[in-house]
Amino acid sequence: MAKKTLNVGMIGYGFMGRAHSNAYRKVSQFFDLDHAPVLKAVAARNSDKLEPFARNWGWESTETDWRRLVDRDDIDVIDICSPNNTHHEIALAAASRGKMVLCEKPLAIDVDEAVEMVEAVEAAGVANMVWFNYRRVPAISLARQMIDEGRLGRIFHYRSTYLQDWTISEDVPLGGPTLWRLEKEVAGAGVSGDLASHSIDTAIWLNGPIESVSGMTEIFVKERPVQGSPSERKAVEIDDVCTFMARFSNGSNGTFEATRYARGRKNKNSFEVNGEKGSLYFDLENMHQLQYFNHDDPSHIQGWRTIMVTAFEHPYMKNWWVPGCVIGYEHTFINALADFLKGLESGEGTHPSFREALATQKTQEAVLDSARNSEWMTVD
Ligand code: SOE
Predict the structure, then answer these.
(1) Which end of the chain, N or C, is surrounded by fewer C-beta atoms within 10 Å?
(2) Where in the chain is the domain with CATH 3.30.360.10?
(3) Which residue, 260, 265, 245, 268, is CA-closest to 162?
(4) If DSSP states are collapsed to H, E and C, what string results for 238-262?
(5) Which of 267, 330, 360 to probe ligand 1 with, by most ligand atoms within 8 A of CB?
(6) CATH code, 136-378
(7) Do 149 and 143 meet the contact criterion of CB atoms below 8 Å apart?
């Protein structure tokens, strides 16, 4: 049967532009789907960088103004990979023209913007998804499956860390490609939005809603040179580290730590879940492994076991290689796109939707409010 084409218009060509372009190119080869994405057009302001990017990834055309992209009749899906402060305006424009909207995380600069984005896509009735790609790590999906199967029983603890170390030097400037993450007007928030948002999305997906939080943040480097103008210095207003406690609706307690100041940690996105019947531990730096402790094992052979999540039975893995052959970071985006397309085709919906990502945004914001006010905050 001929595949239905889905014409994609993507905005942005940075780190995520590359990850998404790769997903659009590969998904039809590895997943048996009715829809085939077409790399129709990519938009960004700087045509000197945009043209080689488009050629390299096989985008059919380019636009230097995202508004023209959104206006084009030959585009079905708008994919937002540009910095956080652009998400809201683009998403509203795309939804008003009836386009499906995919958006990088975090959904928005703040909850107010995120609410309007949810309302816009729901009023327009267009499919939507936020690229919280770590849900699509096979070992994390397996953790979800094992929790759903009741293997952990009642859950007591959820413990999460997301650790990096790339902003420790005071010389790292603020602003420009990648480093817009350090600029409040562009990023909205610091690690709470950039890293803890991933941890919160994973936690809610695995362990259900978070009801209240108590947070603490710090800015270790208070002033930085401005990218492109090193003699100029600007105050840092985003959180460098964000640590919080959380109460989940299921009664379990959580702790979360997100920082870019953990020397030696490059992308240590980890969690441990402790339940009455067992525990699970995952660390992205060993992303094909899931650690499992089963209290039902005979006591003389009890201990943590390492599940190599590469078997055909494991989530996503039958679409990749033979058992034992690991997959990597980029595959999580391909898996996410496959899920989006399957969700469209089955009518089961696309996840995490903007509404689901709003819950994450509300939790992030409650953490920052809590840190500011030194009190527990209920997550609305
Ligand atoms: C930050 O360093 C970053 O690039 C995040 O923005 C991504 O979302 C994360 O997955 C990797 O780290």
Answers:
(1) N
(2) 136-378
(3) 268
(4) CCCEEEEEEEECCCCEEEEEEECCC
(5) 267
(6) 3.30.360.10
(7) no
What is the Å distance from ligand 1's center to 3 Cα?
Answer: 33
pLDDT digit string (tens) for 294-308?
A: 999 999 999 999 999
Strand, coil or helix: 18: helix
Q: What CATH topology corresponds to 4-133?
A: Rossmann fold (3.40.50)
Q: Mean pLDDT of all residues in the chain?
A: 97
User: pLDDT (tens digit, 9 = 90+) per residue, 2-20?
Assistant: 889 999 999 999 999 999 9
pLDDT tens profile 49-93? 999 999 999 999 999 999 999 999 999 999 999 999 999 999 999
Pinpoint the residues of the chain covered by CATH 3.40.50.720.
4-133
Atom of ligand 1 nearest to the CA of 178: 4
pTM of the shown model: 0.98
